[in-house]
Design goal:
- The protein is α/β, with parallel strands linked by helices and about 475 residues long.
- It folds into 3 domains: about 60 residues, Arc Repressor Mutant, subunit A (Orthogonal Bundle), CATH 1.10.10; about 120 residues, Alpha-Beta Complex (Aspartate Aminotransferase, domain 1); about 240 residues, Type I PLP-dependent aspartate aminotransferase-like (Major domain) (Aspartate Aminotransferase, domain 2, 3-Layer(aba) Sandwich).
- About 40% of the residues lie in helices and about 15% in strands.
- The protein has 15 helices and 16 strands.
- The strands form 5 sheets. The chain has a 7-stranded mixed sheet with strand order 4-12-11-10-9-5-6, sandwiched between helices.
- Helix 6 packs across helix 12, helix 7 crosses helix 11 and helix 13 runs parallel beside helix 15.
- It is globular, with a radius of gyration of 28 Å.
Length: about 475
């Protein structure tokens, strides 16, 4: 890599090199301890003789901006803060659009390790300590070997065939989804699947209907695309279909277990929703975010498996079942949308990393994924039982759990008038991370309560953490 220095003309070459390097150090472009190129190499890169560069290095060393180490080279010697260059803000014509994104709230960000509490009830985070690193490392090496054919090339936009075939078998086995690999588009997580579906289905001003409470990141994405997002209420059976406007183009729902409340959509409500979408010509986005982990009751059909008219796009992700940083998801799309989705992904993203796709395909095909899900199911079931025990015991005077059958979070509704924000603040001081249920509401009157993820907290920590919460509630009372 070349050191960027601008040399003009043939005069004062040594001074120009000196001032260029000194300015780069002052502005922080050259960091303390960073090695400078040898004088001969820098001279060749700049197209000048070696002597001006050597003279500049000598002067930099004399001024203690650079230190020479015998046998190793010349290194930057500046531990001071870089000089900030003031820039004036010009009147950009797109300022209204910029202000929209500048002021946009970005919820559900996971705290960095240094900002986390000892006991974290954050949602959407699987149990990282129980991830099968050895099996995944083996599959990653396999993926790198398989990817040799794509080195230096762009991969297929729809995803590598091996992964699409593996996904078709996996979601058919685990969720009853009826599809072929030709109907699957691999995406960078579920969020990109939502983005692509919105791009091809919605124009600015079109109506998108979604559950309220619901997934904030989906709402923000629809809003960012210029859609008019209409909040639709939920009850114990799921989304209230009669509240969906007739002009709706897109319906976002979480039927396996409603996000964030957790109850599954009833069979009758599913049938009614499918009939409504067919009647008004809307597409349903079925967000099946972590339904692999089911604890009680009979399995429910996916909306996609019940769809007779091509009105459901089934979105799945491996962020919850494996690791968020994997950033691989998929959409099972109605045949009529495949060509448009591929065109959109090609334009906005081109393709997802091929090596990771091959690794995941191998992880699915050799049975490692199902083994990991079974192991995770046992861990999450134990944690869920521990949460239920404490909310039906020590915390019963303050909260009631909403029954749920899947995933790795629960919602607890307050049965007293509790200041949830104050509870969060006091709990954080006690090293317990709590999250408010009201943050998932937009227009509907929010229920006071807590959203409790149990992927990031160890089973043995749940009791001590909730006892701290109980003590805080007693003091607040």
């Amino acid at each position: 890599m070349e050191l960027h220095l601008h040399i003009s003309g043939d005069t004062d070459l040594s001074g120009q090199v000196y001032r260029g390097i000194a300015a780069a150090i002052a502005e922080g472009r050259l960091k303390h301890g960073q090695q400078l190129p040898p004088s001969r190499l820098l001279a060749e890169q700049l197209g000048i003789s070696r002597k001006p560069v050597s003279d500049a290095y000598s002067r930099l060393t004399y001024d203690r901006l650079v230190i020479g180490r015998i046998g190793k080279g010349s290194f930057v010697n500046s531990a001071r803060e870089p000089t900030q260059v003031a820039k004036t803000e010009s009147a950009i014509e797109s300022n209204s659009t910029l202000n929209f994104w500048r002021t946009l709230e970005t919820p559900l960000r996971h705290p960095m390790p240094e900002g986390s509490s000892k006991y974290e009830f954050i949602g959407g985070m699987p149990a990282p300590a129980h991830f099968p690193h050895d099996e995944w490392r083996r599959c990653t090496l396999y993926g790198l070997r398989k990817n040799n054919g794509f080195l230096g090339k762009y991969g297929p936009t729809e995803g590598v065939p091996a992964l699409r075939e593996a996904i078709a078998r996996h979601c058919g086995f685990s969720r009853g989804v009826r599809c072929t690999s030709a109907e699957i588009v691999v995406t960078n997580g579920a969020q990109q699947a939502f983005d692509l579906l919105t791009r091809v289905m919605v124009s600015p001003g079109d109506v998108v209907a979604m559950e309220d409470p619901g997934y904030p990141m989906a709402r923000l994405l629809f809003t960012g695309q210029g859609a008019k997002v209409v909040s639709v209420g939920v009850d114990k059976e799921g989304i209230i279909v009669d509240e969906i406007p007739p002009e709706t183009k897109l319906i976002y729902t979480t039927p396996a277990h409603q996000f964030p409340l957790g109850m599954p959509m009833s069979q009758a409500r599913r049938e009614k929703l499918l009939a409504k979408a067919h009647e008004i010509g809307a597409l349903i986005i079925e967000d099946d975010y972590d339904s692999e982990f089911r604890y009680e009751g009979r399995p429910t059909d996916s909306l996609q498996s019940m769809d007779q008219h091509g009105v459901v796009a089934f979105v799945g992700t491996f962020s919850k079942v494996m690791l968020p940083e994997l950033r691989l998801g998929y959409v099972v799309t109605p045949p009529a949308l495949v060509k448009a989705l591929l065109a959109a992904k090609h334009v906005f993203d081109w393709h997802s990393p091929a090596a990771a796709q091959y690794a995941l395909a191998h992880f699915i095909e050799d049975g490692s994924l199902l083994k990991h899900i079974r192991r995770g199911h046992g861990i999450y079931a134990t944690r869920r039982d521990e949460l239920i025990k404490h909310f039906q015991g020590a915390l019963e005077p303050w909260f009631r759990l909403i029954p749920n059958t899947a995933g790795f979070h629960v919602a607890a509704v307050a049965t007293r008038d509790i200041d949830i924000r104050l509870l969060q603040k006091l709990a954080r001081r006690a090293d317990v991370g709590l999250y408010a249920l009201q943050d998932f509401y937009t227009e509907r009157t929010p229920q006071k309560g807590l959203f409790l993820g149990y992927g990031a907290i160890e089973t043995l920590d749940i009791g001590p953490a909730l006892m701290r919460v109980r003590d805080i509630l007693q003091e607040m009372s």
